[in-house]
Amino acid sequence: MRLFDFGAFFIYCGFVGLLALFYKILPGEDVHGTLMRDKTRLNYAVSFFVYINSFNSNKLLALGGNSGNSIYDFMIGRELNPHIGSFDIKFFTELRPGLIGWLFINYCLAAKQFINLGYITKSMVLVQFLQSWYVVDALWYEKALLTTMDITTDGFGFMLAFGCYSWVPFNYTLQARYLVDFPRTISWLEFGIILFVNFLGYYIFRSSNLQKNEFRENPTSKRSKRKQ
């Protein structure tokens, strides 16, 4: 087995390119970002490029990625929000390639299990449903990303690029891959318990993140203030 496959590489590049095209041409809400250190608002509508490009004038640099150590700055990210014209590279990278790629690979693995067994196990159904729910939820609340440290504070470097383009889609799919090689059947009781625990955790996760997002956007709102 080869360690590198040019065919797979170009297919993946084409997939990312297609997502970038959809990112630009599909209609959607125009969301203004968080007020940055230079008092401008980013209007939101890879590693080597953004690092080298960060040395151009009038670039807003990340505080943590401007140490003067080239290796460290390359890893952490020197520029805060690199752009190609109006295309925000970091905002696009944060959710689109990794999460959508995660789903594509997951669905392929479910298809592989069906080919092997002639059916899909309940454990695979759970993995597919719960992970799909997480991804769709993240994309649905995508604008909440604009108030997170990833956008407002952290630079865009190799660490973030590797995490979003490689780590997420090719590691978060290991559960589904395991079930292809080692299919496991669970009872309906186990199915229900796992589903309940997941949605309990999801409620805590989503409600707390929406609360944090609202506070960052408007810390003086009634919901942001603690009850007296």
From TrEMBL:
<feature type="transmembrane region" description="Helical">
    <location>
        <begin position="114"/>
        <end position="136"/>
    </location>
</feature>
<dbReference type="Pfam" id="PF01222">
    <property type="entry name" value="ERG4_ERG24"/>
</dbReference>
<dbReference type="GO" id="GO:0050613">
    <property type="term" value="F:Delta14-sterol reductase activity"/>
</dbReference>
<keyword id="KW-0472">Membrane</keyword>
<feature type="transmembrane region" description="Helical">
    <location>
        <begin position="6"/>
        <end position="26"/>
    </location>
</feature>
<feature type="transmembrane region" description="Helical">
    <location>
        <begin position="156"/>
        <end position="174"/>
    </location>
</feature>
<feature type="transmembrane region" description="Helical">
    <location>
        <begin position="186"/>
        <end position="205"/>
    </location>
</feature>
<protein>
    <recommendedName>
        <fullName>EXPERA domain-containing protein</fullName>
    </recommendedName>
</protein>
<dbReference type="GO" id="GO:0005789">
    <property type="term" value="C:endoplasmic reticulum membrane"/>
</dbReference>
<dbReference type="GO" id="GO:0016126">
    <property type="term" value="P:sterol biosynthetic process"/>
</dbReference>
<keyword id="KW-1133">Transmembrane helix</keyword>
<comment type="similarity">
    <text>Belongs to the ERG4/ERG24 family.</text>
</comment>
<keyword id="KW-0812">Transmembrane</keyword>
<dbReference type="InterPro" id="IPR001171">
    <property type="entry name" value="ERG24_DHCR-like"/>
</dbReference>
